């Protein structure tokens, strides 16, 4: 990269000026203020995963870009928080042009894997193998404007959800919603419900991984306006029946870990919570709620539009790059094959659920 210099740092070595420049460059680029691409997220992940690094791109001694990544054996790299991060990529001043493989070489990486690369990442999009839809809800004009649109596009969905909330009140007790709760018991309940859901559907339990529970704990205590955890809880008769832990910046809220108590499933408490959360978030200055990639019927009902995100990997022609390809690409190709065939995808989901049920006894 002629004329430029790269310094690789641990996240805790980023100074206040580095973080300030990181945010200024994000703002200048016009990208959404997604909390996953804020420096505070990289710093938090760095506290629970020792392989996190940040390549700082300097031009005449001034930062013009930041590339956060994790590095493992044989130089195999991945996006920071891969598997739980919903927005990934490099933070570059407009007009900066880089070659992905050259950047990896400078960072000592043989590959860099991503599964939610944001649109506009010109350095890495050519290395994507799949483009995915990531639905979002626009609430910048206020919740009332949003519900008018929701009634027009999904009238049955809104009517039925509100009716279930009224039934919950009648049959269980008074409903109370807290947008930004400080309730450790509710957070523990959320993790238990979510773990049970992962096991029930035959998927890997994220909350069985210590670094993820540690990360949630750190972000839940954060006071950083551009990246902090928000625990929203729906109570019925003063008992938590649904909860969501997400990340927010000043204007973007990322839908991250939602779950509910299955004993109240007939009332759809997760959907009730989501509508209440959208209302509270709009009143709190949030303009966009990012629902994240991955198919779900409720996302189709709630969304106002789709963002594009990308999955893939930049790979250098070195032994570590070959190891990445052999270890990841065949499985990724198999997932794409299934995901792009709805009937096969449905059968796979049913099989995972049955395996989860058998494992759970």
UniProtKB/TrEMBL annotation:
Is Transferase among this UniProt entry's keywords?
yes
Stretches assigned to the BioF2-like acetyltransferase domain: 159-300
This protein's source sits in the domain of life called Bacteria
Keyword set, alphabetical order:
Transferase
- Provide the protein name: CelD/BcsL family acetyltransferase involved in cellulose biosynthesis
A molecular-function term among this protein's GO annotations: transferase activity
Q: Does the keyword Transferase apply?
A: yes
């Amino acid at each position: 990269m002629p004329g430029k210099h790269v310094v690789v740092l641990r996240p805790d070595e980023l100074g206040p000026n580095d973080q300030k420049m990181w945010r200024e460059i994000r703002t200048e680029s016009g990208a959404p203020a997604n909390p996953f691409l804020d420096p505070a997220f990289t710093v938090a992940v760095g506290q629970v995963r020792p392989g996190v690094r940040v390549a700082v791109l300097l031009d005449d001694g001034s930062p013009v870009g930041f590339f956060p990544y994790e590095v493992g054996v044989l130089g195999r790299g991945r996006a920071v928080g891969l598997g739980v991060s919903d927005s990934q990529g490099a933070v570059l001043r407009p007009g900066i042009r880089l070659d992905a493989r050259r950047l990896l070489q400078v960072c000592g990486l043989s590959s860099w894997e991503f599964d939610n690369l944001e649109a506009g990442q010109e350095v890495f999009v050519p290395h994507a193998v799949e483009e995915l839809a990531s639905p979002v809800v626009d609430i910048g004009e206020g919740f009332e404007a949003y519900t008018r649109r929701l009634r027009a596009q999904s009238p049955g969905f809104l009517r039925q959800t509100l009716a279930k909330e009224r039934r919950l009140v009648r049959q269980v007790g008074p409903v109370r919603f807290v947008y930004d709760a400080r309730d450790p018991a509710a957070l523990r309940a959320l993790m238990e419900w979510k773990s049970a859901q992962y096991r029930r559907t035959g998927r890997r339990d994220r909350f069985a991984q210590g670094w993820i529970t540690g990360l949630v704990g750190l972000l839940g205590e954060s006071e950083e306006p551009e990246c902090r955890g928000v625990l929203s809880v729906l109570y019925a008769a003063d008992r938590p029946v649904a909860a969501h832990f997400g990340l927010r910046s000043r204007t973007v809220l990322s839908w991250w870990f939602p779950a509910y108590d299955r004993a109240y499933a007939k009332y759809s408490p997760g959907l009730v919570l989501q509508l209440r959360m959208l209302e509270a978030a709009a009143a709190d200055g949030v303009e966009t709620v990012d629902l994240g990639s991955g198919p779900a019927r409720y996302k189709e009902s709630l969304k106002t539009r789709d963002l594009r995100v990308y999955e893939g990997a930049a790979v250098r022609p070195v032994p570590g790059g070959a190891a990445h390809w052999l270890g990841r690409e065949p499985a990724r190709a198999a997932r794409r094959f299934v995901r792009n065939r709805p009937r096969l995808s449905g059968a796979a989901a049913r099989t995972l659920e049955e395996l989860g049920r058998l494992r759970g006894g």
